[in-house]
């Protein structure tokens, strides 16, 4: 791939990214008052983050079992409202322990 194609690809990706963020602001000029739509939009960031994080956490672990244990431990600790740093540290420790013990 030569330099022209790379810059063209970057320009296209930047344009698409900008359009995705700009179009809702242009199309929806007034505040959204519908409660169901507002509730849906409230949870979109959480759903997106979960959809990106969970598969990566499971599949990037050394084994599938270690990934499942790590995610399970993280979910349980998060439900108990443990701090994010402790959740990450303890879930990582759980993955390591599964790998060492098996």
Tell me what the structure shows.
This protein has helices at 3-27, 35-59, 64-79, 84-101. The chain is mainly alpha-helical. The chain folds into 2 domains: 1-30; 35-101, no CATH class. The protein starts with a helix and ends with a helix. The model has no long low-confidence stretch (mean pLDDT 89).
Domains (count): 2
Q: Please compute the radius of gyration using only Cα atoms.
A: 20 Å
Element order: H for helix, E for strand: HHHH
Share of helix, binned: over 70%
* Biggest sheet architecture: none
Distance between the termini: 45 Å
> What fraction strand?
under 5%
Keywords:
102 residues, mainly alpha, 2 domains, 4 helices
Quick recap:
The protein has 102 residues and is mainly alpha-helical. It has helices at 3-27, 35-59, 64-79, 84-101.
Secondary structure elements and pairings:
Elements lengths: L2 H25 L7 H25 L4 H16 L4 H18 L1
Helix pairs in contact: 2-3, 3-4
């Amino acid at each position: 791939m030569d330099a022209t194609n790379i810059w063209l690809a970057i320009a296209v990706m930047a344009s698409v990214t900008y359009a995705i963020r700009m179009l809702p602001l242009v199309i929806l000029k007034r505040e959204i008052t519908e409660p169901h739509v507002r509730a849906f939009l409230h949870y979109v960031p959480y759903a997106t983050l979960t959809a990106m994080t969970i598969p990566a956490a499971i599949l990037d672990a050394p084994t599938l079992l270690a990934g499942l244990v790590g995610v399970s431990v993280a979910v349980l600790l998060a439900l108990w409202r443990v701090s994010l740093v402790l959740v990450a540290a303890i879930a990582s420790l759980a993955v390591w322990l599964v790998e060492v013990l098996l």
